[in-house]
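Structure first, sequence second, as always.
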């Protein structure tokens, strides 16, 4: 993360900051509390820098929201989810936002919400590999092998 951040400081482009943010987010999974806190803050700052350079890039906004969802602040544990729901309202047709919300729904056992989001994506873009793969995974975990296989075939 440190070196990716140094590259981003030199390059001054959004995608370099996004790489730094993503790299720090891996470190945020550390068992060491001080390392985890450091990486969380660095990841958030890197994605904020990416957004400042490319404010229309939705992926940067989703990644920042995921920083908060994966590492919720104690004073606002729903901040990341709220950010994603706002993005969903602002960009209802952006698959990355809907798939991210569906993945989080799966993590919390809200399978019907996830399935509904994914089916809406597939109404517009039937070949979306992410949506098809996640649906195959959900149906497989639920023991619905026929549906799982149908979506697995479209999962490329």
């Amino acid at each position: 993360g440190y070196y990716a951040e140094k590259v981003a400081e030199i390059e001054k482009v959004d995608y370099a900051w996004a790489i730094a943010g993503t790299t720090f987010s891996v470190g945020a999974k550390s068992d060491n509390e001080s390392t985890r806190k450091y990486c969380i803050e660095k990841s958030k700052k890197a994605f904020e820098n990416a957004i400042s350079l490319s404010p229309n890039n939705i992926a940067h906004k989703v990644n920042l929201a995921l920083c908060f969802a994966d590492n919720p602040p104690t004073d606002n544990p729903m901040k990341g989810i709220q950010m994603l729901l706002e993005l969903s309202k602002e960009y209802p047709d952006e698959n990355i936002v809907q798939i991210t919300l569906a993945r989080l729904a799966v993590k919390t056992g809200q399978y019907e919400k996830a399935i509904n989001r994914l089916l809406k994506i597939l109404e517009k873009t039937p070949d979306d590999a992410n949506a098809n793969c996640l649906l195959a995974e959900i149906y497989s975990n639920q023991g619905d092998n026929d549906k799982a296989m149908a979506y697995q075939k479209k999962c490329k």
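Margin note: The two ends are 31 Å apart (CA to CA).
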